[in-house]
Design a protein that fits this description.
2 domains; 3 helices
C-alpha cells in the first residue's frame, strides 16, 4: 500500500514527500531530494498546499513509484558517494575510479552525510560516470 504523500514549504518552494522520496518545485522545475531535508518543515494540508501554490506542473512520471530504486548523493570523508535505498554504495576514490567501500553498508551509510544533488554537484563538480555495473541489481 503506498504511503500518503505529505505537503510542505521548503525554502519558499512547494514540496511533496513521503518516507522514501521528496520533490521540490523551484524556478527550474521539480527536483528530487532526500525526505530528511523536508520532513521537519511545518506540514500543510492538501487544501492549504493548493491555496498556497495553486495549480502546479505535474510531477515527473516516476515520482513516488514504489518499484523505483532511489539513488542518493552523499559525501564521506570529503569524497563523493552514491548510495541506493537497497544498500548498494559507490565511492569515488582518490585515483578517480568508483569503488565499493569495504566497510559494511549499514556502518558506511551511517557515516556518510546525505546531500542534495545540487549540493553534490556544487561540491564535486563533474565526476566520472559510475561503472556500468553500478545500481543494476
Amino acid at each position: 500500500m503506498p504511503k500518503a504523500i505529505k505537503f510542505c514549504v521548503y525554502n519558499g518552494c512547494a514540496a511533496q514527500f513521503d518516507d522514501r522520496e521528496a520533490w521540490v518545485l523551484d524556478a527550474n522545475g521539480w527536483y528530487e531530494t532526500a525526505p530528511v531535508f523536508v520532513r521537519y518543515r511545518a506540514p500543510l494540508t492538501k487544501q492549504a498546499f493548493r491555496e498556497a501554490f495553486g495549480d502546479l506542473p505535474p510531477l515527473p512520471p516516476h515520482a513516488f513509484d514504489p518499484e523505483r530504486k532511489i539513488i542518493r548523493y552523499a559525501r564521506h570523508d570529503g569524497f563523493p558517494v552514491r548510495l541506493a535505498d537497497d544498500g548498494e554504495i559507490w565511492m569515488l576514490a582518490r585515483n578517480g575510479t568508483w569503488v565499493v567501500p569495504s566497510r559494511p553498508a549499514q556502518l558506511f551509510c551511517y557515516d556518510a552525510g546525505l546531500v542534495s544533488e545540487r549540493e553534490f554537484r556544487r561540491s564535486f563538480g563533474d565526476v566520472p560516470p559510475l561503472p556500468p555495473a553500478a545500481f543494476r541489481s
